[in-house]
Design goal:
Helix content is 36%, strand content 11%. The N terminus is likely disordered. By secondary structure, the chain is an alpha/beta fold. It folds into two domains: 226 residues, P-loop containing nucleotide triphosphate hydrolases (Rossmann fold, 3-Layer(aba) Sandwich), CATH 3.40.50.300; 252 residues, Rossmann fold (3-Layer(aba) Sandwich), CATH 3.40.50. The strands form two sheets. Strands 3-4-2-5-6-1-7 form a seven-stranded parallel sheet, sandwiched between helices. It has a seven-stranded parallel sheet with strand order 10-11-9-12-13-8-14, with helices on both faces. The chain starts with 32 loop residues before the first helix and ends in a 5-residue tail after the last helix.
Length: 633
């Protein structure tokens, strides 16, 4: 039968008549009883829409292209059929070890999440199913030995899987299930060559499931490479997504570059935003500058960026989800700096709306590390005390290259942040697509959320050089594209009416804090945290594996202590508050008891008569203090 294609040469969604009727309970899906026990243990009440439709289709061997946002349960939608298939095969025959499932993901963090989900769902059949995550950093020989044992499921990034295949450690000749999660993100990370290499070794009978938040025309590449069926089933869940998106409020504040710091100080100090917050910034130095700035006021936060070891990044997310702290300051260099374009093939941009605005090659991190009096040199270029694994070498133009970062890191998409109340775009995203991925971290599963973005008008760009970055020059142009895209989807971005005059009382404190966060302080904080995390993730890795309870006690929101402490900034006197109150109640140290009016008169009279520890006033001629002075011999 001939395929029915749409205008983009993508198979149209399967008519409702050919899709099995959604099942409202897990027990009706036909899954193995041991899997149902694990599901009940996790207190999953009923299948989500994608699980109710995708699981029955997967169990009968259909190729599936599914679109569902993060948090909709799509991980379980593809894991449960795979686990059921493995258990059924092993129950029917005592076959030798075979790797029958390969799950490809764009980032190491996502790979870790999926691996933990496998452990969760196999809690009652752990001896029957073996799964390994080969994205973690470990000795090549150790990883090779694990793969040669042919585990049932391999979780990997395309680059890692292709590398192990080339080394003859990973065999996919017996593969029956292939999953590519966040499929469009896999493409944007430049894994085309690795995916092509994997596709050439796939058996013809493999079942393919491509899952993503969006199903755009660029998925034709993956569909052509991996879908053996001429008409894969297309599943889309617009109605569920629109319900979630309707509770997302989007606001924008136009301000000067230094006023970004004033606003974030006021927002957190006055508790204008409650709950968990993800603060997106432009780059790694910006992470530490904002963190150190907030520390001046006693506001604790932690950073998340590609420079940290993967174990540390995973732990940060876990602790955030558990409620150990409320503020993450995250940078996504793949999104805003185009790091993947430097290390991999530059991805094809389909339209002007998706083009990222990048800084010039010799100005990738300009000005963010400066304070008044500093030279115009970025912090990353002056990171002369970097750990041994970071290579910083001069380029032909005399500048130093940025430290090596993890090419398989990404934060705005995919990672399962839970119960995020607000996404604060401290630095605006560089494209409307990146903005959409960022705000997708909040207002999920029917909960409400806020997306607040700071935008610098072009005429205010570089008016305050110590806090200036290159991307703000294009904020207004990017905002126009963001508004157009959001309006096309029925969403509205409204101005948030901050009365900046009411924050004038905070400005002197802003200046004090910014002066303390120097370029050197940012560099030292960045280097210190990196070294500490390397120590914890490498030398103590085995210890924490044997003592997981100690790992849980670690906190990632500790103060960097790279700047001088200013205790007075931690307290907000009432006369600084926007209400204009003048009565001040604050801890100012020892204050004597209040004297009554009669007591004050008696004390004053006694002092004038010299009866209260003082001398009686002389009515005679005043003495010359210089003539009466007697020095020691």
């Amino acid at each position: 039968m001939k395929r029915k294609l749409n205008a983009h040469d993508v198979p149209e969604e399967t008519p409702a008549a050919s899709v099995p009727k959604p099942i409202s309970i897990f027990s009706g899906l036909g899954l193995d009883s041991r899997l149902l026990k694990a599901i009940a243990k996790e207190k999953f009440s009923k299948p989500t829409p994608i699980q109710a439709q995708a699981i029955p289709l997967a169990l009968i061997g259909k190729d599936i292209l599914a679109r569902a946002q993060t948090g909709s349960g799509k991980t379980a939608a593809y894991l449960l059929p795979i686990l059921h298939s493995i258990l059924q095969r092993k129950a029917l025959q005592n076959s030798s070890n075979r790797t029958t499932a390969l799950i490809l993901l764009p980032t190491k963090e996502l790979a870790s999440q999926v691996t933990k989900s496998i452990i969760t769902f196999t809690s009652f059949c752990g001896q029957e199913i073996r799964a390994i995550n080969i994205t973690r950093k470990e000795d090549d020989e150790v990883q090779r030995a694990k793969l040669l044992e042919k585990p049932d499921i391999v979780v990997a990034t395309p680059g890692r899987a292709s590398s192990q295949m080339n080394a003859s450690a990973l065999s996919i000749s017996d593969l029956t299930h292939l999953v590519i999660d966040e499929a469009d993100l896999v493409l944007s990370y430049g894994y085309e060559d690795d995916l092509t290499n994997i596709s050439t070794s796939l058996p013809k009978s493999v079942q393919t499931m491509l899952v993503s938040a969006t199903l755009r025309t660029d998925l034709d590449t993956l569909k052509g490479l991996f879908c053996q069926s001429s008409s894969p089933v297309m599943l889309s869940f617009d109605s569920e997504e629109s319900t979630t998106q309707s509770v997302l409020s989007q606001y924008v504040v136009k301000c000067a570059e230094d006023e970004k710091f004033l606003l974030i100080y006021a927002i957190f100090m006055l508790k204008l935003v409650k709950g968990k917050v993800i603060v997106f910034v432009q780059d790694i130095d910006r992470c530490y500058r904002v963190k150190l700035f907030l520390e001046q006021f006693g506001i604790r936060s932690c950073v998340l960026n590609s420079e940290l070891p993967v174990n540390s990044r995973i732990h940060v997310v876990e602790e955030f989800n558990k409620g150990m702290y409320d503020i993450i300051i995250a940078s996504d260099e793949h999104e805003v700096m185009g790091e993947e374009n430097r290390s991999r093939k530059k991805r094809k941009v389909e339209d002007d709306d998706e083009e990222e605005i990048k800084a010039p090659a010799n100005q990738s991190e300009p000005l963010q590390g400066r304070t008044d009096g500093d030279n115009d040199v970025s912090t990353s270029q002056s990171l002369v005390t970097a750990p041994d694994h970071i290579s910083i070498q001069p380029t032909s133009n005399g500048h130093k290259k940025n430290p090596k970062r993890d090419d398989e890191y990404g934060i705005s998409r995919g990672i399962d942040f839970q119960n995020v109340s607000c996404v604060l775009n401290f630095d605006l995203a560089t494209s409307s697509k990146s903005y959409a991925h960022r705000i997708g971290r909040t207002a999920r599963a029917g909960k409400s959320g806020i997306a607040l973005s700071f935008v610098v008008p072009k005429h205010l760009h570089r008016k305050h050089k110590p806090t200036s970055i290159a991307s703000t020059e294009h904020d207004e142009a990017v905002l126009a594209k963001i508004i157009a895209r959001q309006e096309a989807q029925g969403r509205k971005i409204e101005p948030y009416a901050f009365d900046m005059k009411k924050l004038d009382g905070f400005r002197y404190r802003l200046s004090d804090a910014l002066r303390a966060v120097t370029r050197i302080a940012v560099r030292e904080a960045r280097t210190r945290e990196l070294r500490n995390e390397l120590l914890k993730s490498e030398k103590l890795k085995q210890h924490f594996e044997e003592n997981p309870q100690e790992l849980q006690l670690l906190r990632h929101d500790g103060e960097s202590r790279a700047v001088r402490v200013q205790p007075h900034l931690r307290h907000v006197p009432e006369y600084l508050l926007p209400g204009g109150k003048r009565s001040v109640q604050m801890d100012v140290g020892f204050v004597g008891r209040k004297e009554s009016r009669d007591t004050e008169k008696r004390v004053g009279k006694a002092r004038s008569q010299g009866r209260f520890g003082g001398r009686k006033k002389s009515a005679g001629r005043k003495t010359d203090p210089l003539k009466s002075f007697k020095g020691r011999k």
